[in-house]
Amino acid sequence: MEETTDAAAATAVQLIDGEGEFAGESAERFMAAAGVAGCGLSYAVVSIMGPQSSGKSTLLNQLFGTNFREMDAFRGRSQTTKGIWMARCVGVEPCTVVMDLEGTDGRERGEDDTAFEKQSSLFALAISDIVLINMWCHDIGREQAANKPLLKTVFQVMMRLFSPRKTTLLFVIRDKTRTPLEHLEPVLREDIQKIWNSVAKPEAHKDTPISEFFNVEVTALPSFEEKEEQFREQVQQLRQRFSNSIAPGGLAGDRRGVVPASGFLFSSQQIWKVIRENKDLDLPAHKVMVATVRCDEIANEKFGCLTSDTEWLDIESAVQSGPVPGFGKKLGYIVDVHMQEYDKEAVYFDEAVRKAKRQHLESRILNLVQPAFQKLLNHLRLKALEKFKTSLNLSLEGGQSFAASVRDNTESSLNEFEQGCADAVIKQANWDYSKILEKVRRDIEDHAFSVREKKLSELTTQAKEKLRKALAEPVESLFDAADETTWASIRNVYRRETESILPQFLKTLFGYEVEYVPAEQMVSNLRDYAQSIVENKAKDEASKVLIHMKERFTTVFSHDKDSIPRVWTGKEDVRAIAKDARTAALKLLSVMVAIRWDEEEDRIESILMSTLLEGSVVSKIASAAHADPLASTTWEEIPPKFTMITPAQCKSLWKQFKAETEFAITQAVSTQQAHRRGNSKLPPPWAMVAIAVLGFNEIMMLLRNPLYLFLLFVGYLLAKALAVQLDISREFQNGVVPGLISVSAKLLPTIQNLVNKVAAEQQAEHRPPAVEPPEPQLQPPPLLLSPRSPMSELRRLHMPLSPVRKIATPSSPSSPSSSSTMSSPRHFVDDQKPRPAAAQPENESSNADSIV
Ligand SMILES: Nc1nc2c(ncn2[C@@H]2O[C@H](COP(=O)(O)OP(=O)(O)OP(=O)(O)O)[C@@H](O)[C@H]2O)c(=O)[nH]1
Fold first, then answer.
1. Is 54 annotated as a binding residue?
2. 70 lines ligand 1 (CB under 6 A)
3. What share of the chain is helix, strand, coil (3-state, %, to 5)?
4. Which tops the pLDDT comparison, 173 or 32?
5. Which of 514, 543, 572 represents a domain boundary (last residue)?
6. Residue 811 annotated as part of some ligand binding site
7. Rounded to the nearest 5 degrees, what angle is found at the Cα of 768, between the Cα atoms of 765 and 774?
8. What is the extent of the structural domain holding 358?
9. Is 57 in the pocket of ligand 1 (CB under 6 A)?
10. Residues 222, 329: one domain?
11. Closest atom of ligand 1 to CA, residue 134
């Protein structure tokens, strides 16, 4: 197998054809087959030049085991090698590439055509480490030697290389004679020196010795044709000199500016191109150019390898759906592998170029993988925020204070995020994650802030609810029983409740690390809220003050001091009771006119008393003409914002109140008078006894006769039915006489009603039922009117009826009797309904009017 490879490598291929064209494709195939590309710098290039048909190919084949085409000795001397051929030495280490150049002085190209000769010589000098110069022994010391023009050409073109490679020129003297080499070599060197001296050199190299540019070596071989055995023997000895030729002290130990093997072909092609274009050959620049091109190629290849690396593709797809544990380590390893590959292949190229291209490759790779890193950071960011949210909830549920929970959980979430970032960074990149760390911190702070705001809002709502519960009902009940101590009690309740609820609230705020000023502001807001509860309740109650006044009036007027409903028997002082009741109502009004946060006493009650209650109607009218303290919209001591009922409104309210309570007083007076009259009309007891004694016989007769007894029984049943119908017990509640009067008035209509009913029932038995339209129901007038009801309406509904109207209207059987008892405010309210009053003498109603 190895033999086959060696044979393939040794097979000569054309590098440049006879027309001067570079045979890139066949050369590439050769390079691949010979395995030169992987040799790095461990390879040597040997060329041979010399006159045509001087046995060059024969020598190379014998020396290196190659198979360059040789001329058939029996056909005569003609050119066999056209252009430049190339093969790899067999069994020589390091890898040695040999090039066989077209012979000089060829008849085929003509005498003057030295262009290709010069170009191929320059090419050989530019790319070879060792140049064998084949020459006939008999040419040494001759003026017309065949190799003189060749040497001249070599030295001339050497000047076109900006940087000499210190090529080894090994002169191989063919067909050596008996003259020993020791004698031939000085003559040859002298010839060489002469030629070197004769060559026109640039100013910089005018005095430069040949040794600066070349290592000159000389060897001699016997004739292949005549002494083949000796030739082979000495060739084998010469072959030893090519072993480790590039090592220090070797044949090519001093060589300079070697192009790495992988760039050899490209470099050769470029050099040939430059030579063909007859340009100056700047080898250092060429070397940089080759390095640039090759390093680029290598970098591109490695980048391509990475993009299709399955491990990288796996990581890239995994990171789309979530964090990848050990991301940095894994990715770093992958990048490392491909960078090392680059380093391995580019190591022999120009260092500056290699490093620059490495850097470029690395940045391309990092750009490729960076989006995956960013994606991972986003996952970590979300994870950190989620962790913070969850752990904060748990801490708060566990009873830890808000501020401490936020602090602890922020720290742990950020630590975890930072660890994740550190794990995601690859060693090749200096990726900065401080910005995203800041973002995570902001995310966490924003969340904590929103939770805090929510919690504080909940706390505030709770505190408000507590305040509302603690204040609303007690304040309402205090207003229900309004008296001169009401506002003091309200202030006490307010103080007690706020002092119990607000410090607790403030303490809770400190758990949220609310600063002192905002915390105080929040407490102050709550205090205002508590005040507003009281004030709103007060305003609410003030809007219903007329109802409250009437209720208060009724309570006092219709109940005695033991809260027992009053029975108007005639002994009561209605005037005094009415005055007391109105005084109580006025006191209630004075409580409701203003909000009193201030503990200082005011004069509102005394102003109201003196203005509204005291003095006769005539004196009031007179005083109204002068200075009326209630003719104002403000109270002297009360700021407008605390005024609930203005003095003018008080006046109007009082007027309405009086109008609406007049009827109750009138009724009380009427009841009293009726009571007095009823009591005075009873027959004396002696007359009653006389009736019983004188009527004894008639009573006995009735009892003894069954017919009478039956009639008596029927009469009893009738009387019982009437009694039920008339509700006798209720009628006699106010005395016998008023009862008799009332019953006698209702007796006839009731009997008529009974008879009608019996007749209707009998008719209904004989007639089919007919559907009758329902009678429209009359809406009762409003029981209570709001304080805003127009006075005319109030008067119409509540003013006592005129005496004429009272007498003309009969009492309705269905309406309640004109009972004088007002057992409760509800009864009083019922009594406010306009109804026909019981007939009474004119002088009695005028008595009631005088109280009103
Ligand atoms: N006198 C003599 N002839 C030789 C020697 N070696 C080879 N020859 C003969 O020289 C002739 C040319 O041999 P090649 O090896 O083809 O010579 P060449 O220099 O490669 O020829 P071109 O490639 O055409 O320039 C052949 O006939 C060989 O037999 C030698 O050492 N001495």
1. yes
2. yes
3. 65, 5, 30
4. 173
5. 543
6. no
7. 105
8. 282-431
9. yes
10. no
11. 19
